[in-house]
Each structure stands twice: as C-alpha cells, then as structure tokens.
What does this fold into?
Amino acid sequence: MAKNGFAAVRSPYLVPYDGTFRVDRTATKPPAKHADKETCKLWLAEAVEELSGLQHMLYAHDYHSVLLVFQAMDAAGKDSTIRAVFTGVDPAGCDVHSFKRPSLQELDHDFLWRSATRLPERGRIGVFNRSYYEEVLAVRVHPEFLKYQKLPRIPKKLDELWEERYESIRDHEKHLARNGTLILKFWLNVSREEQRQRFLARLDEPEKNWKFESGDITERGFWRDYMKAYQDALNATSRPWAPWYAIPADNKPFMRATVAELVVASLKKLDLRYPELEPEEKLRFDEMRELLRKDR
It folds into this structure.
C-alpha cells in the first residue's frame, strides 16, 4: 500500500515509477488472444455493470472521490471510451469535463487552476477529457503558446520549465490522494498508422465528417515531438497514488474493456461500504413499518 493510501492495480499497461517507460516499446495493439471484438464487448458489459454498483457505494460512502484523466493523440478514442465505460453510471454522481484552448480568464491563473475548479467532490467520479497535462504536452510541442500565459519568468532552457511543471503536478496529485481522491490516468496509445486510417474514415464517411479538423493533420506532423513529450511526462508523473496506464488503442473494444476493468479493480481497493445507521435509529424500524402499513 502506498503512503498516500492507494496502491495501483497491477497491469501489463501500468507505467513504471522508475523512469524506464519507453513509447517505442509500448504496444498499440492487444495480445492476439484478447483481440476478439465480441469477447471484448462482453467483458466491457460485465465491467460496466459492476462499475454501476461500485459507483452507488462510492456515492453513499462519501469519503472518497475519483479522478480519471484521459490523454491521447487525436482519433485515439477518448470520447467513445468515456461514453462506453460510463454508460451505466448514475449521472448524478459523475461529471465529465473537456479541456480545450484556455480562456482569457483561465490564462490569468496558474496552469492548474482551471482543472482544480472542476475536481470531483467526495462521493463523485470526475472524468477529465484532456487535462492539466496539456501544459507539458501540447505546450511543450508548441512553446509559442507560452507567450499567452503571462508567466513572470520563462527559463532560457525550457526543460527547466517542464521539470518545474512535473513537480507541481506531482505535488498536486499527492495532495489530492492524501485527501481521499483516487487518481487514475489513461494514455490511449494509438499508432500513427491507425490514426491515419481513422482520419481517412472521417473524410470518407459523411456521418464522421463533423469530427474532422484540418488542424488535426497539422498536429500529426509533430508526432515524434508528441511521443517524446508523452514519454517524459508519463515517466515524471506515474506514481503509486496517481498511476499512468498506457492502454493499446488500435483496437477500440479491447481499449474500452481494459479501461473499465482497471477502474473497477481500483474502486474495489477503496474498501467502500454503505453507511450504517445509528443503533437508536434501527430500533425504530419496526415502529416505522407499522406506521407505513397503516398509512393507506
């Protein structure tokens, strides 16, 4: 068990904590024995049903919150995975936030502020579709974005800035974990070729045209830069109390089922339970039953 109360669920996709994670050695496809679409759908359905029950208990217990962070390249399947995994969750206990270009108000605050204002309260699940990690991913790939952030100082060597931000993120997540937030972070690892095929589908299939943006093709040209940024960020911030999982994303059914299973297994580690009534209140149950029977 980690000092902060959580121990990450073991998985072949868990990013180690010792800085040895390498993108070029990380699978984008599932093992052949787990690639069957129908089997993955059944696996997902079972996990979603179990997640629904655990979420009700989380809400009733009201001592923990859950923060799930999803990061990925375009077309990796973040939206569809979030939709598939949380399809059976009571919306009263779950919030999904998508983080895009920061507003002028958000730029007037530190880089963690806009996500901190959307953190889940106790008893609830918060899902971040992109997150504060964009500040060491997209901003690292495009350092020209820094000129809009009104920073009092920018080191001449930008590597120093990224290290400072990694430190801020680690401290932020450790603080959340110490105060009862279960943090799980998923990098949906899609291959460059699979992304190309999905972009073509967005162009060729009318019902998918709305998903396409010309800027996606521009960003694709920075693929190597993004992979280096992901590798460094995951190595710097995967910890037992805030683990990263690098999930193969070329097979969507497998990806969704794997994410759902990891969320379920992690929630089970929280020792959730329904609150117990005070003994004095239980003693009145017979009286309440009798009153209800007469109330016709």
Observations:
- The radius of gyration is 21 Å.
